[in-house]
Each structure stands twice: as C-alpha cells, then as structure tokens.
Amino acid sequence: MKKASSKIMTALFIIVALLIVVSQSVVVIPTGYSGVKTTFGQIHERTVPNGINFKIPFIQSVEKVNNKQQDIEFDDKVWSETKARTAVYFENVTVTYRINPEKSAWVYANVSSYRENLVTENLVASAIKSTSKELTDIDVTNRSIIEPRAMENIQKALDEKYGENVVMVNKVVINNADFDESYNQAIASKQKATLEAEQQAIENQKAIDKALADAEVKKTQAEAEAEAERIRAQGQADANRTLQESLSKEVLEYEKLQKWDGALPKFVGDGNTGIMIGLDDVEAEETPATPVVPSETNN
To answer: Per-domain residue ranges for the chain?
Structure first.
C-alpha cells in the first residue's frame, strides 16, 4: 500500500511539474498588444506578435506592451504667447497616441517607465507653445486651427526624440484656451468701441442717404418745373409765330375797317418830320365865309 501511495504521489508531482513547465512555456498575447521577450534580462529585438507564443520556462519571460490607442491627460495650464506676443494659456489637454507594434521592443528597452514617460508633459507643453507662437490672436483660441497644428508639432517632437514611426499621435484635444484677464478686458473695450463706431457709421450713412434722397427729389422737382415752363414758353412762342404768320396786309386793313367808327382822324402828319396838322383848321380855311345879308330897315 505504501508503494502504491508513493507511486501515486510521484505521478501527481510529475503531472503538476509538467503543468507548471507547460504554463511557463506558453504565453498568450491578446489582440492590441505585442510581446517583448527577455532571456536572463536580455531584451530580444524581435517583437512577439499577438496570439499563442512559446518561451523557455524559467529562463525567458515575455512582457506585454499595449499597442492600442491610449489617452494621456495634462490638467495644468500651459502659458504661452501668440504671434503678436499676447499672453495666452491652454489647459485640460488630452493627447491620444499609440505605440507601433514593430517598435514595442525598442520602446521597452530604451524608454524608462515608458507607460508614464513616453509622452511627457514637458514635450506636449513645448509643442503647444511653439504652435501658439505661429498663430494670430484670432486663430490661437480656434480649436479647429490650433489642435491639428499642435498634433503635428507633438508628432514632430516625438519623431525627433524616438525616431519616426515609433509613437504615432492620433489626436490632440485642448479643452480650454483663453487669454489673460487684462487682455480680455481690453478686447471687450475694443469690441464695445467698435460696435459704437459701427452704429454711428450706420446712423451717419442713413443721414447721408436721406440728404441725397431729398436733394434728388428737389432736383427732380426743379427739372420738372423747368420742363413745364419750357413747354409753356414753347407753346406761347408757337402761338405767337402762328399768329404773326397769319396777319397779312389785307387782313390788317380789314381789321382796321371793321373797327373804324366813320370819324376822320383829328390830325395827320408825317412820322418822319414830326409835323402834325389839325384837320379841323384846314376845313375852316377851305370853307368860304357865308355872306352877310343886310336886313331891311324901315326908313
């Protein structure tokens, strides 16, 4: 019985040992990850792909590296300035990145504590500052403009630090970008002054337009009156011309006869000499005196 029990215990020990050896020989790399194999601490340059992989138990180990998209958030304010040297700050910045699976072994071997130090706050802040200095005061707070440019500069900084195609930046989100309070107050005052100036310009233009309209009305009225006067004058001239053309010598003589009352003129004369002769005197001279007949007297 003791021999049988001993054999059973030995068999169980062997089975457990085999299971342990097998478990230490097989490693499963899930989707979205890659493996970095080490032998006695020596890192292999070749990355272990996802799926089932084998290693030498108790001698080799495999570290999983996340190759999925990862977000790293920076809550601190990043102060910078614009192209016009206006103070501006950015906060709540999120960078989405991923590690190239083919470069997982290199990252694991060369970046200390790569999970925390691969994309650092200083690198991101420096890239954002460089971006803001390229933009105007209007564009620097426009997320559709600054975010893609910041992403380009962060990618450029990562490529310079680690080499190309090691870390890929997929997206940059800047949740808040604003100016210094004194600048905001100055902008508000400027906007108010601009609005007032624009309103005054509108009122001035209205006054000018009204004055031009009134002048145009007066001009139109004056032109209409002048035209009416011209038409009246033209009509009078045409009437006078027609009347003049219709007055012949015979017509004038006829008109004289129609208006003569039968009486002879009192005076006649020559318009050239200015001598006027009274017709009454001439008749008196020509008429013979009536002889005086002596009346019969009684002798």
So the answer is: 2-66, 70-179, 192-238
